[in-house]
Amino acid sequence: MYSENNLLQGLNDKQLQAVTLPHVSALILAGAGSGKTRVLTTRIAWLIQTGQTSPMGLMAVTFTNKAAKEMLTRLTSMLPINTRGMWAGTFHGLCNRMLRAHYREAGLPNTFQILDTADQLSAIKRVMKVMNVDDEKYPPKQVMGYINSCKEEGLRAHTVDAYDGHSQKLREIYDAYDQQCNREGVADFAELLLRCYELLEREPHIRAHYQQRFQYILVDEFQDTNRLQYLWLKLLGGAHNSIFAVGDDDQSIYAFRGARVGNMSDFQRDFQVQNIVKLEENYRSHSNILDAANAIISNNQNRLGKNLWTSAGKGEPIRIYDAYNDTDEAQFIVDEVNMLQNEGVALGDIALLYRSNAQSRILEHTLFSSNIPYRVYGGLRFFERAEVKHALAYMRLIGNANDDTALLRIINFPPRGIGARSLEQLQEAARQNECSLWQAATNKVGEGKLGSKGLDGFVALIRHMVDQAYGIALGEVAEMVTTVSGLMAHYQNDKEGEDRIENLKELVTAAVAFSKQDLGNHHNMEEDADLMTQFLNHASLEAGDHQADVGHEALQLMTVHAAKGLEFHTVFISGVEEGLFPHEQAAYENGGLEEERRLMYVAVTRARQRLYLSYAQSRMLHGQVRYGIASRFLDEIPAELTKRLNSKPVAKSYAAGGQYTAKPGVPPVAHSSYPFKIGQSVRHGKFGEGVVVSYEGNASDLAVKINFGSAGLKTLMLEYAKLEKI
Ligand code: ATP
Ligand code: MG
């Protein structure tokens, strides 16, 4: 028996078929825990190992930075390659990278900065103020939602339809906001995508470059792509590239951010997809959990339809806890977590999920008082904290003084006597001259027209910082900024400043670590942006993501949205009440309830061994007591799978996986006595084109396994198969 390829070992037939598909576009449509992400990662490894492509010849798109990192870790454990420099990341991350490489063609400054959500909101407020728009009639958050959804649809202000006065006004604000961003050389998250899409569409040579390069494009969580992301993929896919999309329509939970399940059928049509592989075996959960998930989702009408089964056995019943109130619920969870720990379950393998962020406060409080370490994903992350953002704003100004958002954040922080009046004058001057605030300040200061002492001091400070920053290491820049700006001194005088000082120091550490990490990177033309800009970008992208600090074990707290794609030994879903989950807003939205149900399906399918569902008869939320009744989703679970008010069960201990150290280089898989290399494309008279997957048997009756794409996997006797190399 020839066993060349332990990469493929342990895959089931369908998975094997998906992993080894020829160079065609394919859709892997499968339910939760069926190994989609594993198939996608294994395919990357297989394509590289068999020499069908190199690590630089493919692009992999995932949903969060965390998922991308995980994918690279898994990859290096399968294959000793250097994954640095690979194009694997989120849509935003990858677009950002392309824009950096072609900033000129994209009409952006070399050092353009990314606005995170909070920055974007404040930028919109500024535009509205200049335009004298009533922010009660046009709440800035709604305006932001409007602008982002236009961008997600690929629409600019001059292409979007407006039917009445209200929408015309929105369009006007959108236009003015875009102009302001261009003036300041900044881009919000949605802009990264749209700008990159427009770049590829407008510049045929750049498009051709990437099309030639990325012959294999792999996309995880395809069901949650929005219109623009799909169009972007379509451009990169061109006429010839293979797009390998992996998804589950039942897990589409980002409709509120423009996700379109319809992309799946468009994809099949646009790319003439003949290979739709369905994976039906679930490897994650025991059958009680899986059956519950299947039962819940079967109440949805618009489904593509899949069956999921597992050979794992029934496992433990799903535990349902009816709490008296929210404190009782939290206490129950704490008790169970303690018990699980005693049984040997690692804290990091336990997740506490909730539908809305606001629910986490009471849970956090109880965990804190019980001394259980926990980590909140998607809360106020390090880079979102005010003092860190202040320091970053100074760094941004050093890189690009025309960044008005950064300037406004710190022009008078720490306070230096620049009053609202001088600020207004400055803004007026910038408006009249259609220039940035910095330009307005530097033009006028010399002439003494605007010159307030504070403003002079500020301009001198920034210039001084620019001088100081010249030629020193990133970590030193960060350190210089925190002291020279006066931030350190400011917080030292503040009674509650201790944490903030810690965070500023941590920022210096982060900068030092970042430059070390980057020195290991191979620099090339595409990564030409300077280190500080890269660091600032990293900060903006991380702030928008759900990134945990590395280090000690902690219970994982997160919203259901943030849990997508992850799995845990034990999962608690709290607040399973009408109005909370399904969320009350769902009742008002078209398809809202079905989206909530998919969200519940995602939540339930995160659990490998044990699942708890709890609800409270009353709880404090947003400062009000509300009385809850159990969620309809609980009724959708067959009673025989559940156990009400649990007794203490015995759980098995749980061991973590092995480790691996990576070496650069790709191992050859060729074997001299075989006529075709693994991964070689061949033609067969009847089945058409296929790819060689493996060999079986010995020299006298050697069989070859070939993946013929739509015709499936075939094992053929080499002697009679009459295969032709292509
Ligand atoms: P989700 O829809 O939640 O993203 P998924 O379809 O991406 O799930 P994976 O995360 O890839 O599923 O796999 C779920 C679990 O099953 C993982 O722990 C994975 O290692 C395991 N698994 C997948 N395929 C196999 C297999 N053939 N044999 C054993 N374990 C497997
Ligand atoms: Mg997955």
TrEMBL record:
Domain UvrD-like helicase C-terminal: 287-565
Gene3D superfamilies: 1.10.10.160, P-loop containing nucleotide triphosphate hydrolases (3.40.50.300), PCRA, domain 4 (1.10.486.10)
Binding site for ATP: A30, G31, A32, G33, S34, G35, K36, T37
Domain UvrD-like helicase ATP-binding residues, every copy: 9-286
Keywords of this entry: ATP-binding, DNA-binding, Exonuclease, Helicase, Hydrolase, Isomerase, Nuclease, Nucleotide-binding
Classification via InterPro entries: DExx_box_DNA_helicase_dom_sf, DNA_helicase_UvrD-like_C, DNA_helicase_UvrD/REP, P-loop_NTPase, UvrD-like_ATP-bd
Descriptive protein name: DNA 3'-5' helicase
Source organism: Methylophilus aquaticus
